[in-house]
Amino acid sequence: MTVLHERRWLGQPPGLTILFLTNMWEQFSYYGMRALLVYYMTKQLAFSQGASSFVYGAYAAGAYFTPLIGGIIADRWLGNKRAVIIGSVIMSAGHFMMAFPPLLFLALATIALGNGLFLPTLPAQVNDLYAADDPRRGWAYNVYYVGINIGGFLAPLVCGTLGELYGWHYGFNAAGIGMLLGLIIYLAGARHLPPEARRSTRPASLQPTRPGQRRRLYLLLFAVAASVTIFRAAYEQVGNTVALWADSGIDRHVGGGWSIPMTWFQSLNPLMVMLFTPPLLAWWRRRAERGHDQSPARRMATGAAIVAGAYLLLAGVEVAASGHVASWIWLVLFFTIFTLGELFILPTGLGLFARLAPANFEATTVAAWFLAIFSGSLAAGLTGMLWSVVPHAAFFTLLAALALVASVLLWLLDASAVKVEDAARQPMPVI
Known about the structure:
This protein is an all-alpha fold. It is 71% helix and 2% strand. Strands 1-4 form a two-stranded parallel sheet. Helix 2 (49-78) runs antiparallel to helix 3, helix 5 runs antiparallel to helix 6 (168-188) and helix 7 (213-235) packs parallel to helix 12. It is globular, with a radius of gyration of 21 Å.
């Protein structure tokens, strides 16, 4: 494994800062467009709620399916760095195309195509910044995840406000500019990134030291991905039906005749990620020092259960409101609980897939994690179509049930995950 022996920035390799900032601006562009998408379709293009929810889910699914193909292309031909650059350029074009209503579907397809090259190849570079025994390696993806959420926090405030108050095309163009800023940072900081290993013409390092080890690894990753698919069907409602509820189901007035813009609530989740991550990492570190660290699968199961609790809160609020709008404070409380659960499951899952990736197949394995997001996003789009069909309290209860099922499945996978991770730590001979 390649390690950079350079001056550290904030206790971490400088390359992590470059990847962090590049990812932050890419997420700014993605969440900026996402904050506007459902509102744009229903208010500007006169799509029905069911149609807009399906398009939203299908787009999110496509954006997370293309990384599987992009990861293979990067591993076999392009390499991670060139894939990031090409993907950034394509995504920027797609965001600018969103400003033209007739190009809606073409623009969404273009963004998804560029995302396929960008998304698996940027995080795949994080591991190579650390030695295998570097204790910071285990927390690197939580730090990286904060970059996602800084971009996600700024996006609704900038793109959402521009689109909601001044015109949709201003918001979409701001998203495109954010993507270009990420590309500029990546190119400027390329010297701090690890050199890419020579692409092997055969997967020699995939040969297991014991019969069945590789098969158990793939079965585990498939089972975790299936559990995360169920979880994402509930999780992805934040930008879909929960956003619709923020528009019509809550009282957004705060006094003085001022009403909170509906897109601003999309910033609560990333803001809380930034606030919660440092103390949560400190708590996990103290537990690990005392020998009480949770295994990845068990930590993910805990997160899914917490998210289930957040949706049960919304169900209770809907029942108590009895057809009236609820206070916006309940939505803030929902995002507080929701975000805590998210921090347990999503960065942990990404880190698990990256750590278990066989040599020369890093981007492809990380792409398999995003494939779970693809299937979960598609399921979320289909689930979101029920919003106009069933009572909202029942809908939120259904989302809680989905998250709870995912929690149980992940908990049952814990013993197998521990065995596979222990086996993966053993060196594999190159044949």
